[in-house]
What does this fold into?
Amino acid sequence: MENIKAYLSEVLQLPGDAGNLCSSFYVPMTVSKNEFLLRAGEVCKGTYFVEKGLLRMYSIDKNGKEHIIQFAPEKWLISDRSSLHFNEKSDYYIEAVEESLVLLLDADFFTNINLHFPSTSENNDLLLQKHIRNLQNRVNSLLSDTAEERYLDFIRMYPDILQRVPQWMVASYLGITPESLSRVRKELAKKNFQTS
It folds into this structure.
C-alpha cells in the first residue's frame, strides 16, 4: 500500500509511522473492470482511495445519457460526499474503468486521523477547500469555456488518462460529443503543426 502511505505523508503530512495506525481505518478491495462500487439509488458507504487502477463517477440523465463527473486514477479519492455525509440515496455511479485495487476509507477516516494527529487538521481542511475550488472551477468551465479550453484543462488535470480511456468517456467528461472531441483534437494538432 505504497500510494496511501505516500498520500498520507505528502498531502496530510503524517509522520512515517502513521501508515500502520491508519490501516485500521480502511479496507482494501480488488475491483474488476466494469464492477460498480456505487449505483444510483444506493447510499454511499465511504470514500475510495485508488491504490492502483482507475475509477470513474457518472450520472445518467432522463434520456439515458451518461455524464462523467470525475475520474480517479492512482492516489485520487472518489466519493459521493452528499450521499455519504447526509445518508441520502446517490444520484451517481462509481465504476472501475480498469481492474483496480482500492481502499474503502470509512466515513470517519479523516476525523479519526485528526483525533490521532491533531496537527493534520489544517491540512485536512485545506484538502477539502481545494476539492470545493476544483468543483467550482469545473462548473464554471462547463458553463463558459470552449470545448478546446475544457480539453486542455482535462489534459492538465489527468495527464495520463487519455491513453487509458476510450474517447467517448473523455467527451462525456467534457460535455461534448465524440465527434466534437475529434474536431477539437484535429484543430489542436493543426495549430501545433503550424507553430512547430
Observations:
- The mean pLDDT is 91.
- Residues 121-144 form the longest helix (24 residues).
- The first strand starts at residue 26 and ends at 31.
